[in-house]
Design a protein that fits this description.
By secondary structure, the chain is mainly α. The protein has helices at about 1-5, 15-20, 25-40, 60-70, 75-85, 90-100; strands at about 40-45, 50-55. The protein has 2 domains: about 1-55, Arc Repressor Mutant, subunit A; about 60-100. About 60% of the residues lie in helices and about 10% in strands. The chain has a two-stranded antiparallel ribbon with strand order 1-2. A hairpin with a 2-residue loop joins strand 1 and strand 2.
Length: about 100
């Protein structure tokens, strides 16, 4: 996913193979891409004889969904949020405060 987020979409399996792990078998890369598509993380369209892949969400959107999922599974959301905010630096806390005020 990191490779797909860092490149101009769409990317072919050959692009991913060369950019991520040229030492792995090409079929392994194709299998991983197909599984990510099956799980809804990627869109794909046919280009010639192969598919090209594009992330469904940006990395920021994906990470936000992960954070939301963790909070949903937490028994004490307030404590988890408090611990998270306390772990942030001053600049990040200011940025978070600004984002919350503008939300």
């Amino acid at each position: 996913m990191a490779f797909l987020w860092s490149t101009s979409p769409p990317s072919s399996p050959a692009d991913v193979h060369q950019g991520v792990a040229p030492d792995l078998a090409y079929t392994t890369i194709m299998t991983v891409l197909t599984r990510l598509w099956d799980k809804g993380f990627l869109d794909r369209e046919r280009k010639g004889r192969a598919y090209v892949y594009t992330p469904v969400r940006s990395e920021a959107e994906h990470r936000a969904a992960q954070m939301q999922s963790v909070l949903e599974g937490c028994g004490d959301r307030k404590a988890a949020l408090s611990s998270f905010v306390q772990s942030l630096g001053k600049a990040e806390r200011r940025q978070l405060r600004t984002l919350l005020e503008n939300a």
